[in-house]
Design goal:
Number of domains: 1
Strand content: 15-25%
CATH architecture: Alpha-Beta Complex
Helix content: 25-40%
CATH class: Alpha Beta
Shape: globular
Structural class: alpha/beta
Number of strands: 11
């Protein structure tokens, strides 16, 4: 997604959610300054393979991790594993270290920091609501690439995408991915503790804002499925995504046919 197209989406998001573009750009400037001081990464520092698995933090996540482990896809050198924020915690529980974590720093930071120390690259997103977290956490992290949803300042980039999950998809596409598996990307009205660490139960109902965010994320991935030069396969059990191959009612082992 080029920047002009993304900005059209961004204007819709600002209107729908009442976000402040000024705050988004202030957050990006703060992130830029920190990354300049600690030698933040550029896109040339990160390698993404042609085949990618993007893990979201939806209700299908644990089941999808088990299926991927059974197929040994997590052990295949051909895949880049991208975790959307809190999905990192579920992957670590299964002894999987993601190659890349896409985060706005509202997941379980102990786990994100642990994965970072074990080698995960972090793609840290700046928006108007996470300025305090950027100031607190980014200075102590390593291998960080900064992103924004607004006009990118020096050393911060905009690859498109709104939530951590769909930003992971657009990041992969921008870096040349041609085949993407979506796991734990349900896009329904249910969320998990991996998405909201303060949730009392393992799973609960999404509030109105979270539901609307997931709806936007779904629309963005549908756009990618229709307009980008990439094949996307969804093994999650949630809502069907237009333009994406749906494995909801198929044996996930059939995905091996796409890998030949």
């Amino acid at each position: 997604m080029n920047l002009d197209i993304w900005m059209s989406w961004y204007e819709l998001i600002l209107e729908e959610f009442g976000f402040s573009r000024v705050d988004d750009e202030r957050s990006a400037e703060i992130l830029s300054k920190i990354l300049k001081e600690k030698n933040g990464l550029s896109p040339h520092d990160i390698n993404i393979k042609k085949d990618v698995i993007v893990f979201g933090a939806g209700p299908s996540l644990k089941k999808n991790i088990s299926e991927i482990k059974e197929l040994k896809l997590d052990k295949m050198d051909k895949f880049t594993i991208i975790a959307a924020d809190g999905a990192t915690s579920a992957l670590l529980e299964e002894d999987i270290i993601p190659d890349i974590i896409v985060t706005d720093l509202d997941g379980k930071m102990d786990d994100i920091t642990k994965a970072n120390k074990k080698g995960s690259f972090l793609v840290v997103h700046a928006h108007g609501d996470n300025i305090d977290k950027i100031k607190r956490y980014v200075p102590m992290l390593s291998r960080v690439l900064g992103t924004t949803q607004s006009t990118p300042p020096d050393n911060v980039y905009n690859f498109g995408g709104f939530t951590d999950g769909d930003r992971g998809v657009f990041l992969a596409i921008a870096f040349g991915a041609r085949f993407i598996i979506l796991a734990g990307m349900d896009f329904g009205d249910r969320i998990t503790r991996y998405s909201r660490p303060d949730l009392e139960e393992l799973e609960g109902k999404a509030d109105e804002i979270k539901y609307l965010k997931l709806e936007f994320a779904k629309k963005l991935i549908e756009w990618a499925g229709r307009h980008e030069n990439v094949r996307i396969v969804n093994i999650s059990k949630g809502e069907e995504i237009e333009g994406v191959v749906d494995f909801k009612n198929q044996d996930v082992r059939q995905i091996e046919n796409y890998l030949k």
